[in-house]
Specification:
The chain is an all-alpha fold and 307 residues long. The protein has 14 helices and no strands.
Length: 307
């Protein structure tokens, strides 16, 4: 028999759905505005006429971005940092979580305490900056001058992700591991043939966390990889390049977007180009996220709840 919905429950559902829809629109609107501004004319963008839909539609801004070699060089740097950084961080996070999940590990409780301690008390910006500088000096001493590797190696640690993986590994039945060891499996085979396949939802979730943080990483790349005459602009990720473009050309920082250094005919705005870059930069995340989303809730629940 179908239960009759009470008035209070109906009111609650209406309010909840309204809030969710409003929140969703707030999240989607910036992307819609970025697309509209990228396809609008210079007068419409700089005059504040763009609110929701494109005004005086044109595609010159995207054409400019697609033919900007430096943008795509920095774009490839972001792909490089995201791929190798995610592999590096995920690899040793799995190893660390596997070790911490074993009760036979000597000093296990102490290691777990120090791991959680880093979540309570952060060392601060200065020690992190010194860490990046020392890492870059080590690379330079062995002949690696490309500072992209500094971002890949030095930004690897994340205590929360290790805890998620550790809890997921602890949820694997010990009987399965014992059966694998009876069959002659080594420690590495137990990890790769038992624990990783049975925790793939959490691993996919953690990989998504690492990937997004690397893709959106801006601050430390901006601080560690210098610009200017002695800099390494060719090693910048795309986010730093977008920031440099914003500082150089757009009216947001007070400079004129219509002077000769930008576009003599002023057919499209530098702000439109900026938004076109932002749209191009967010496309990979939008493309990958739906494929990993199915693991997201399951992975967080498996790794975040300890039975």
């Amino acid at each position: 028999m179908k239960r009759k919905t009470e008035v209070s429950e109906l009111i609650f559902k209406i309010i909840a759905y309204f809030i969710l829809i409003l929140f969703s629109l707030m999240c989607v609107y910036p992307l819609i505005y970025a697309l509209s501004a990228a396809f609008s004319s210079a007068d419409a963008v700089d005059g504040g006429k763009v609110i929701l839909w494109p005004v005086d539609v044109q595609g010159s801004a995207f054409k400019h971005v697609l033919t900007d070699n430096r943008f795509w060089i920095n774009y490839s740097n972001t792909l490089f940092v995201t791929f190798f950084g995610t592999v590096w961080s995920l690899g040793y996070s799995i190893l660390g979580a596997y070790a911490l999940s074993k009760k036979r590990l000597l000093g296990r409780h102490g290691f777990n305490f120090f791991l959680v301690f880093t979540m309570w008390f952060s060392a601060g910006i200065i020690p992190q900056y010194m860490n990046y500088m020392q890492t870059s000096q080590v690379f330079t001493s062995i002949g690696i001058t490309d500072l992209k590797w500094t971002i890949v190696i030095a930004m690897g640690m994340n205590a929360t992700n290790i805890i998620l993986l550790r809890n997921s590994f602890e949820g694997v039945p010990s009987e399965i591991e014992e059966a694998a060891r009876i069959d002659g499996a080594t420690e590495l085979q137990v990890l790769t043939k038992v624990y990783i396949p049975m925790s793939k939802a959490t691993i996919a979730t953690v990989a998504l966390f690492f990937g997004i943080s690397r893709w959106n990483g801006y601050f430390w790349a901006y601080k560690v990889i210098p610009g200017g005459e002695q800099g390494q602009e060719y090693s910048w990720p795309v986010q730093v390049y977008i920031r440099d473009f914003l500082n150089t050309y757009t009216q947001i920082t007070g400079s004129s977007a219509g002077d000769n250094k930008w576009s003599p005919d002023y057919t499209y705005s530098a702000t439109s180009v900026l938004y076109a870059m932002v749209v191009c930069a967010v496309i990979p995340i939008l493309a990958i996220y739906p494929f990993i989303q199915k693991y997201f809730a399951k992975g967080v629940n498996m790794g975040g709840v300890k039975e």
